[in-house]
UniProtKB/TrEMBL annotation:
The chain crosses the membrane at residues 91-110. Keywords: Hydrolase, Membrane, Transmembrane, Transmembrane helix. The gene is GGT6. This is Glutathione hydrolase 6 isoform X1. The lineage of its organism: Eukaryota, Metazoa, Chordata, Craniata, Vertebrata. InterPro entries: Gamma-glutamyltransfase, Ntn_hydrolases_N.
């Protein structure tokens, strides 16, 4: 697989670095200086210009010409009265000039601050752009992140605003979710992903590799290796910078949200204390503060690892000591490969390869799109399945059309329920090989393979018994919009269905007309933040 890289090296965040970077560099001991460069350079993106110094040059030149015209020559030979008038006129002219220059400076400063993003980072917020027009929630000029946790969506946005790309934002948000949503994902989870490069038009699938076990019922963790591999090939910011925010959350504490509190109430606390319990053994409720210093130490060690394998060793070694096990003969084998694609009249569909549900998804879509008949009811009751995998999804997008979709799962709520005391990690019980990844099929629709400026739509679902049917229904709903797709995007964006067969969640992201669109179904399940 040919991977396009930016041979210009990594980009420094400089003064535009976020509060996450400053806070965690100081408190968590993770330094972004002197970080070892990844084995492969990042891809070429259409870079987000934070500030162009030429913005004010024309105004300043015009201003200088104006001043030369209005300031009289007070030293010209004139009579006494005229000299007094000239001096008074010159003083006023200098005052007006100073005020005009101050106005120009303030205008440039305002533009630069706007380009860096709204520092308040309120959920779903987006300040009006310099052109003066505003957008509905979920529409942004530069880029956005959407995830089930507001803290992690904010972290993804901050990484974008610091000069990172969608891979940086997605990896940082995924590691954040590993801290604040241990019931659904974590460093013990299995990851699948789909990255679409808006510059090259290429789509790349990410897989954790075959499911392997450490012991009966305990999955071999592969999250750190998988995410580090993705960042090595496509990220822009230094690897340690992505782990700084999650490490600080684990060390200094995070607030339990409704999703985690609900999972704790349903699961009970057996095996989860003292991490997620009060001193009396009762589960933490919404708004309680939880800390995980052992996990913070793992993230700190992983931040110093120059390769994916060494990042995984930061977790695996203390984990094996906890379990009293020997190192496995074969470790995780995450991979990046060209996405599975299907050409359809509306563009090109891309998804992940087997053993994910990607091939099933494309077959279902091909049959529906080429039949010429209305699609069958995709929400008919499904046969009973032993368990619906519990998982987590997130998506990041920029206005140039670059998209990252990530989905992860521990299989059961809180995975195996085995908490490693030395690492603060819950291991997965996702160990059945053939059907283990039927819950994963992220999808990207690129409306033209030859035109990199064409519209891009990304869909990723989680928590439903059959995500392929859910994703098929969502895409067909989008394509069934008005014939004038430009009008459809302008007024509606992605499809606005209110349910996905009664359960689970679906994230939708899109790039259209140099804007990034994000939404979720149901609408209140996830938080989006952009700039």
């Amino acid at each position: 697989m040919a991977v396009h890289r930016d041979h210009g090296g990594q980009v420094s965040t400089g003064e535009a670095g976020t509060q996450w970077g400053r806070l965690t560099s100081r408190r968590a001991g993770v330094s972004t200086k002197g970080a070892m460069e990844p084995a492969a350079g990042p891809v070429l993106y259409q870079k987000l210009a934070l500030w162009d110094p030429s913005l004010g040059s024309e105004e300043e030149e015009e201003e200088t010409e104006t001043l030369e015209l209005v300031i009289p020559n007070s030293w010209s030979p004139q009579d006494s009265l005229r000299r007094k008038v000239d001096r008074l006129t010159g003083a006023w002219a200098r005052l007006v000039a100073a005020l005009l220059l101050l106005a120009v400076g303030l205008s440039l400063a305002a533009r630069q601050l706007h380009a860096r993003g709204d520092p308040t980072g309120s959920p779903g917020s987006g300040a009006a752009p310099p052109s003066g027009h505003s957008h509905t929630p979920g529409v942004y000029h530069r880029g956005a992140t959407i995830s089930p946790a507001a803290t992690c969506s904010h972290l993804g946005r901050e990484l974008l605003a610091a000069g990172g790309n969608v891979v940086d934002a997605g990896v940082g948000a995924a590691l954040c979710l590993a801290v604040v949503h241990p019931h659904a994902t974590g460093l013990g989870a299995t990851f699948w992903g789909l990255f679409h490069n808006g510059t090259s038009g290429r789509s790349t699938a990410l897989t954790s590799g075959p499911a392997r076990t450490l012991a009966p019922g305990l999955g071999l963790p592969s999250a750190l290796q998988t995410l580090h591999l993705l960042h090595t090939h496509f990220g822009r910011l230094p690897w340690p910078q992505l782990l700084a925010g999650p490490s600080t959350l684990a060390q200094e504490g995070f607030l339990v949200d409704m999703a985690l509190a609900g999972a704790l109430a349903a699961q009970g606390t057996e095996g989860l204390c003292p991490l997620l319990c009060h001193s009396d053994g009762t589960p933490l409720g919404p708004g309680a503060r939880a800390t995980n210093p052992s996990l913070a130490a793992v993230l700190h060690r992983a931040a110093l690892a120059p390769t994916p394998d060494l990042a995984g060793e930061a977790l695996l070694r203390p984990l094996l000591r906890d379990l009293g096990l020997q190192a496995p003969s074969v470790g995780p084998t995450p991979s990046l490969e060209p996405a599975l694609q299907l050409a359809v009249p509306q563009g090109v569909l891309s998804t992940t390869r087997s053993p994910s549900a990607g091939p099933e998804l494309l077959a279902m879509l091909q049959a529906a799109l080429h039949s010429g008949r209305p699609p069958p009811d995709l929400c008919l009751p499904l046969p009973q399945t032993p368990v619906t995998p519990v998982g987590s999804v997130l998506a990041t997008i920029d206005s140039s059309g670059s998209v990252l979709l990530l989905i992860s799962s521990l299989n059961s709520s809180f995975g195996s329920g085995h908490l490693s005391p030395s690492t603060g990690v819950l291991l997965s019980d996702l160990v059945a090989a053939p059907a283990a990844s039927a819950w994963a099929c992220p999808l990207v629709l690129h409306s033209s393979l030859d035109d990199t400026d064409a519209d891009v739509l990304g869909l990723v679902a989680s928590g439903a018994p059959d995500v392929a049917r859910v994703t098929t229904r969502a895409l067909l709903g989008h394509l069934a919009g008005p014939q004038n797709q430009a009008q459809h995007w302008q007024h509606q964006g992605p499809t606005q269905n209110t349910s996905i067969c009664g359960q689970g969640i679906l994230l939708q992201v899109a790039a259209h007309a140099e804007h990034a669109h994000v939404s979720s179904i149901p609408s209140g399940c996830c938080t989006f933040q952009g700039f």
